[in-house]
Amino acid sequence: MINQLKELLSEEQVSINETILEQHSQDESYHDVAKPDVVVFPKTTEEVSRILQYANTHKIPVVPFGRGSSLEGHIIPYDNGITIDFSLMDKIIAIQPEDLLVVVQPGVTRTQLNQALKQHGLFFSVDPGADATLGGMVATNASGTTAVRYGVMRDQVRDLEVVLADGTVIHTGSLAAKSASGYHLNGLFTGSEGTLGCFTELTLRVYGIPEFETAARATFNTVEEAVEAVTSVLQVGIPIARVELVDEESIRQVNAHNETSFAEKPTLFLEFHGNEAGLAQDVAFTTELMQDAGCTEIIFETDTAARNQLWTARHNLAYSYIHSHKGKKMMVTDVCVPISELAHAIHHAREQLTKYQLAGGLLGHVGDGNFHALVMVDMKNTDEVARANALNEAIVEYALSKNGTCTGEHGVGVGKQKYQRKEHGAAYDVMASIKQTLDPNNIMNPGKIIKVDPV
Question: What is the pTM of this model?
Answer without folding.
Answer: 0.93
